[in-house]
Amino acid sequence: MERIAHRGAKREVPENSIPAFRRAFERGADAIELDVHATRDGVVVVHHDPSLRPGPGQAKRAIAALTWDELRRIELAPDVGVPRLEDVLAMTPPAKTVYVEIKGEQIESAVLAAIAGSRVPCAVHSFDHAAIATCRDIAPDVPRGLLFEHSTVDAMIAALATAGARDLWPRWDGIDAALVRRAHDVGARLIAWTVNDLAAARALAKMGVDGLCTDDVRLLDALR
After folding, report:
1. Is residue 162 packed enough to be buried (19+ CB in 10 Å), middle (13-18) or exposed (0-12)?
2. Residue 101 parent element (H or E)
3. Cα–Cα distance, 126 to 145 (Å, whole number)
4. What confidence score (pLDDT) does residue 70 get?
5. What pLDDT, in 10s, does the model give residues 22-70?
6. CATH of the domain at 137
7. Helical segments of the chain, H only
8. Helix (H, G, I), strand (E, B) or coil at 18
9. Boundaries of domain holding 206
10. Structurally, how many domains does the chain consist of?
11. What single DSSP character describes residue 188?
């Protein structure tokens, strides 16, 4: 069962940053999960929200409206900036996995191009299931996943087939043993998000989920 650090070690350092991912691996994460957008000039960057503040008291600006040269000057904290996806892939240890959530619109080709040059295992996933279907058409060998907030078992399984996805990402409190069995019956992997309670993590592990995405991988140390 994979221990997946949600946006890195976000409880210790700014999320979706190089220090956050480095700390997550130091804490024993098997994989990291991150969010991506693209700048105006097509650079894929790691950030959750579609916009950010250039500085204190300044109005937010859309990432899609900024060039990489503009964005790279913005600090999330002293000496901590927004990284490119390629920067994160370059610092990831070879045995680890990077799960890339596509947030920006119509950036599938740029994301897949960045992944194509990586030496580490990568997979893409999104709440935008059409984007994942597009990824299937562009790069069928890249593993794909679908995120769900709330849905029925039948609807989730059907969506996996439609998008040609491997990974099912339901919210942790919507998972039961029947869903895990159905996912495994169709050859899918089931990854629970975002699990921050040890009792819930134990129950999900007992059900046989394939991965737990958490804000603090230290929480899952007791499961090993």
Report:
1. middle
2. strand 97-102
3. 7
4. 96
5. 999 999 999 999 999 999 999 999 999 999 998 888 899 999 999 999 9
6. 3.20.20.190
7. 18-26, 68-71, 85-91, 108-116, 129-138, 153-163, 177-185, 198-207
8. helix
9. 2-50+82-223
10. 1
11. -
Residues 59 and 204: their CA atoms lie apart, in Å, by: 42
Closest CA to 164 of 185, 184, 191, 146: 146
Q: How far apart are CA 16 and CA 46, in angstroms?
A: 6
Half-sphere exposure of 215 (CA within 13 A, CB side): 11
Residue 59 lies in a domain: no
- Name the 3-class secondary structure at 14: coil
Q: Sign of dihedral through CA atoms 60, 58, 47, 174?
A: negative
| pLDDT (0 to 100) of residue 204 | 97
CB atoms within 10 A of CB 42: 12
- Best CA proximity match to 7, nearest among 112, 22, 163: 22
Whether 64 is covered by a domain: the verdict is no
pLDDT digit string, tens, across residues 158-197: 999 999 999 999 999 999 999 999 999 999 999 999 999 9
